[in-house]
Fold this protein.
Amino acid sequence: MTSARVWSERTHWIETDRRWACALNQHAASRALVTVCRVTSRLADGILWYALILALPFAAGKAGAMCAINMVCAGIISLLIYLALKRICGRARPYETCPDIKLCGHVLDRFSFPSGHTLHSVGFSLVLVYYFPIWSLALVPFTIVVALSRVVLGLHYPSDVLGGALLGATIGLISVVVL
């Protein structure tokens, strides 16, 4: 593949990513949707996950304790990878680079790639569903809303969310296989 073709393909994907980010952010005109996205993102900041980690050993005995330990391990690994990638990639957030994108959420750090909310939600959800499959009924929709909310709120590009989801899935799966 020639360098011109590679550059053309790269430009095409960047533009597609930007267009999707703009299209999803246009839904931020709905106050109800923004409220749902903000609440979901806030829960995914850690509140929900920390509460589950603390409650699982008491609510579900030995399986709950093992799940909590697994979540802590997956969380630490996810955090280390997330922090390294944020620094290495240094990708600006969409609301900073696209004049059509409106910021509607709280920014926790400077860079966009990967989406830490999505990474942790996917990883933690996989671990929880491994131990307690019935929880998939609540966690799958919640995780999808977390991922979409990050783009709707103008905080991430779709590729940031996809990258976070793939990393979270990989870390979550490795975590349950190893532990």
Q: What stands out?
A: The helical segments are 3-25, 31-89, 94-97, 116-131, 136-152, 158-178. Residues 3-178 form a domain with the Vanadium-containing Chloroperoxidase; domain 2 fold (CATH 1.10.606.20).
